[in-house]
Design a protein that fits this description.
63 residues; alpha+beta; Factor Xa Inhibitor; three-stranded antiparallel sheet; 3 helices; 3 strands; elongated
């Protein structure tokens, strides 16, 4: 059997850390930031951690 390819779309969006947790960018942080509150823009720079259920689904797609 050939090796499975990692999913290109998801591998650009999430980062699997050494500890095994999965980091993803914050929702709504890509554009139209001028309309949004400043505290929202500031918090969205940090990103967020995926839930355990979602991380389990995506871990097979990203190697």
């Amino acid at each position: 059997m050939p090796k499975m390819k990692s999913h290109g779309g998801i591998s650009k969006k999430i980062l699997v850390r050494n500890s095994g947790s999965t980091k993803i960018g914050h929702v709504g942080a890509n554009h139209n930031s001028g309309k949004k509150p400043t505290d929202f823009n500031r918090k969205s720079r940090k990103g967020s951690v995926l839930s355990k259920g979602d991380a389990k689904r995506y871990r097979g797609l990203v190697k």
